[in-house]
Write a structure and sequence with these properties.
108 residues; elongated; mainly alpha
């Protein structure tokens, strides 16, 4: 029996059960849940970075967005609050659309 020891989406146990396979799960306490959400972000970001097609990249971005929703919630907000903060930062500091790469800044 393969061991995964990782956070999975809510319907994954149902998907596995429908295959007739047995499995074990546990419910995480809040601190462990937050830790596993953060680990899952790295996993999904790595999968995005190694995506070899736009379609695969979009799937991994969707996974990251789902994690953003969950992380916002455990931090006492929802994704609309995260979006509001993102917009404020974009207005003050801009986005990343101009592809500017800062090489260095002269010290005084």
């Amino acid at each position: 029996m393969p061991t995964y020891n990782k956070l999975v989406r809510d319907k994954i146990p149902e998907v596995i059960a429908n295959t007739g396979k047995s499995f074990n799960t546990t419910l995480l306490e809040n601190n462990e849940y937050i830790k596993e959400l953060k680990k899952k972000c790295y996993e999904e970001l790595d999968e995005y970075a190694s995506a070899e097609s736009d379609e695969h990249a979009i799937e991994e971005l969707a996974d990251l967005l789902e994690l953003m929703h969950a992380l916002a919630k455990v931090n006492g907000a929802d994704i609309s609050e995260v979006e509001r903060v993102r917009q404020e930062k974009a207005e003050k500091r801009g986005g990343f659309e101009k592809r500017i790469f800062l090489v260095d800044v002269e010290d005084e």
